[in-house]
Amino acid sequence: MRDPRLLARLVPRKWNVDACLKHSNAAAVEKNKKNSTPACVDVYVPASHAFNPAVLPGFVGLAEQHGLKSYKDFHRFSLENSDQFWGALGSAYLDWQKDFTTVQESNFKTGDIKWFLGGKLNVSYNCLDRHVARTPDKTALIWEKDEPGKEERITYSQLLGMTCRLANVLKQANVKHGDRVVIYLPNCPLAVAGMMACARIGAIHSLVFAGFSADALRDRIQNCEAKVVITVDEMTRGGKVIGLKKIVDAAVKDCPSVQAVFLEQRSKNEGKATKLDVRLHDALSGVDAICKPEVMDSEDPLFLLYTSGSTGKPKGLIHTQAGYLLYAAVTQQVAFNYSPAEDVFGCVADVGWITGHSYIVYGPLANGGTTVLFESTPLYPNPSRYWEMVERLKINQLYLSPTAVRSLLKRGDEHLRDHDLSSLKTLGVVGEPINHEAWEWLYDKVGNRKCPIVDTYWQTETGGVIIAPLPADAGDPIYPSMAMRPFFGIDPIIENSEALVDHGADLAGAIYIKQAWPGITRGVYGDQQRFVETYFSQSPGHYCTGDGAIETPEGYFRVTGRTDEVINISGHRLGTAEIEDALDLHDGLSESAVISFPHSVKGEGLVAFVVMKDSHAKDDRKKIVKELKDVIKMKIASYAVPEEILICQSLPKTRSGKIMRRILKQIATSKTDDFGDTSTLADPYVLEAIIATWSETHTHAENTKT
Ligand code: WTA
User: Which of 60, 344, 593, 673 has its CA 20 to 30 A from that of 514?
Assistant: First the structure.
């Protein structure tokens, strides 16, 4: 048995030690003995969830031709015969206007990645028309609005009608193949129709999460030089009204590329009209409900999605048509055990993030399924919201964030009582590591120990799930808090490990992927050099995820968190450099260092250590802290505001001037007994002053409302 204390030192921040023990069950049993709840030992894949090629398009043919039976057979085959595997799935899952001639040309040294070359298709045709031909009245979307019980159902034929009208409106506005369209909307049918309409005419959409500030929206619009923006005057979230139009108006003032702002009106407030405004209601009623789908090349861009990296500037990751759609569809079906003919898929993410793209919109619609568009919050009007919704909508797969699970767990089991959750078959989590307690609560209390938990590991860059407990064969184990098995076509390896020996048989280090899969991003918009440097330069020939992981001898993976300066607040990615750049906008700021600390609900919380210029040294601290918080809200979004902002005299630096963040992290987690090697610290006395400031001013960041 390896020594947990040793493990504690080696395992990246924020993981509790028991959670990192191989198989983890021994620790879970011990912990639960104390808590007197049964531990989640002996969790196995039930036969009903076992990988079954006979019910999956494309897989059945491969199984017959190559004698493949199990998940393991298929996984091996998908790596050794990548072209044959994805070629068969590409033909079976998608409808092509012209067949592809080459499955892939991928080079992880140069970052040139192409799939299904020569193929022509239309993504909106694949998501809508072909289903309308067979099941026009099937529900495509269930729009679960902010107020519970007010859901609206939209059929495939209605969604196609909306899409075509919107596509015609965009065409009238001179939006053409390759033009960029920014969509700034909450989860609502218009957002989906907007994505589909762009796909229909070959425009490239870029959704911006409707919690981002005007400045953040402006930066994204400017970066992609969007021609139009689609938005709504107001949205309601958790009972609160948020005026989106005002934010768009402020953003587009400095965006000369924008020629029109298409506006859906939900409220009676007329608001201030600008010369860019086009009222969607009027525009849509004046156009045809038929729009011929544009014939697109497999590798034409489908969308851009901005995400944080380790520099201050978010990058617009590019996803293209065929490979992305195929990967979203296959992973949605196989990793969640989704049956498109009968299941209701409940992914409660926001369409503005990649999870919403792949598992609210593209995956479920390509599969012809029914997908929920959840516009509210897990706590509105009370912490029973998800459970009441699961019962009412008869959701079969619920896909949520570990932060939401932790936050609901904290509020007690009584909120689950009196709700019939028997429709649930699979529970999925994503976005950040899930701790044991949250995993077990989900498995035990929500899933009634019947639903496999799929802890899905993936990224905006990967397009879809790359490591997850499913697919797997009947009776295969599922270990708590572990993403476990690589998806088909995914060949992860652990590299750069300093900890190989100490982990015994386990490998620990950074996780890389050896070969391309169809869903991988094709680049950073306008900056191919950044793409290659960020993802392919650390270990040439391998894709660098930027995450740390542990691999067991059985080949199961546990993802432990980022290895770079990217942090995960409630599952949302943020670069510390991005926040530091925002703080820098304050006139009085001299320098800052933003670090994260483990937060029991959000996964990670933020602390900013700031040094003010002499001219501001005597200013009222409360006032400065408020100003700094406002600057972050203005530049990024409210969720990026640190729990704590600490004004210090100076920051701990090496002699060469590099801030020693490791030390700040120790201070923020009150681990000040031993700072380890501080020989490179230029001025050791700064530590005392920072520790004193921390204990005087910090206000128990943990208790910050979530
Ligand atoms: C983290 C979200 C642990 C990881 C789909 C990754 C996870 C980043 C998991 C991507 C998981 C995602 N376990 N960590 N199951 N899933 N992450 O681009 O650090 O918003 O790099 O995509 O979230 O975040 P992104």
Answer: 60
Do 508 and 576 fall within a single domain? no
**DSSP one-letter code for 281:** H
Residue 703 has pLDDT above 80, yes or no: no
Q: How far is CA 425 from CA 396, 434, 457, in A?
A: 5, 19, 19
The reported pLDDT for the residue numbered 566 is 87
pLDDT digits (tens, 9 = 90+) for 495-520: 876 554 455 678 888 999 999 999 99
Are the C-beta atoms of 4 and 31 separated by less than 8 Å?
Answer: no
- pLDDT tens for 305-321 read 999 877 778 899 999 99
669 C-beta neighbours (distance < 10 Å), count:
15
Q: Say if residue 502 is in the same domain as residue 574.
A: no
Domain containing residue 75? 52-93
- Same domain for 607 and 663, yes or no, is yes
Task: Report the half-sphere exposure of 557 (CA within 13 A, side-chain side).
Answer: 31
Residue 445 token pair: 């209390």
Q: Is residue 555 part of a domain?
A: yes
Q: Which atom of ligand 1 is nearest to the CA of 467?
A: 15
- The residue nearest atom 3 of ligand 1, judged by CA position, is 433
Q: Which long-range contacts (CB under 8 A, 24 or more apart) does 135-140 make?
A: 135/368, 138/368, 138/370, 139/370, 140/365, 140/370, 140/371
Rounded CA separation 634/637 (Å)? 7
The SS3 of residue 56 is coil
Residues 6+ apart with CB under 8 A from 75: 485, 486, 488
Above 90 in pLDDT, residue 573?
no
**Span from the CA of 167 to the centroid of ligand 1 (angstroms):** 33
Reported as a single tens digit per residue, the pLDDT across 409-436 is 999 999 999 999 999 999 999 999 999 9
Distances (CA, A) of 441 to 99, 445, 448: 47, 5, 9
Asked if residue 423 belongs to a domain, the reply is: no
- Ligand 1 pocket, mutate which of 457, 479, 487, 574 (most atoms under 8 A from CB): 457
Residue 264 reports pLDDT greater than 90: yes
Q: Work out the angle between the directed axes of helices 156-172 and 189-201 (0-180°, nearest 10).
A: 60
The alpha carbon torsion through 519, 520, 522, 526 (nearest 10 deg) reads 110
Ligand 1 site, CB within 6 A: 307, 353-355, 430-433, 455-460, 483, 545-547, 559, 561-562, 568, 573
pLDDT over threshold 60, residue 605:
yes
